[in-house]
Amino acid sequence: MRKRAAERNMNETLGDMEFRLLKLATRKLLDHFGSLKAAAELCRVKPTNLSQYQSFEHTTFMPVDVILTLERAAGRTFLSDELKRLSETATSDDQDREVRDEALDILAVGELLAFVCEATAEHSESGIRLSENEKRRYFELRRRVGQELDELDSAVEQDGTLHRHKA
After folding, report:
1. Among 63, 65, 152, 163, which is least packed by CB within 10 angstroms?
2. DSSP conformation letters of 19-64
3. Is the pTM of this model over 0.85?
């Protein structure tokens, strides 16, 4: 429990948007290899670590040497490109970030749909039926998507803008 709190404190400087974008870019890089085991065979970390690096539930990120190794093997710079974009965005005006922020709300819906597809696939741990853990995860994701849609509805009703509130 203490470790989780320390990890959260370490990543407090990352906004929710940046956290999500980095996790999505990590997932895209790892998906390139077809399986976590295949990716792990090319670098110094285990499949369980790779899983944590792409998970929204874990605050840890992939080490730089692992990123370089996997991107070189993939022949694509998914994560490095996202880091560069985030670095450039930090110097752009707020309106550009708000537009990208709104696009991320759509990605939350995609995350929910991807989870449902993965959890109900024939090769999943519980087959085509959701396990109790998967049911809980579904409702957690569904609640988050619902909150984001409620925020968007509220903004549109109040003044017609699609700007997200900054934390």
Report:
1. 65
2. HHHHHHHHHHHHHTTSSHHHHHTTSSS-HHHHHHHH-TT------H
3. no
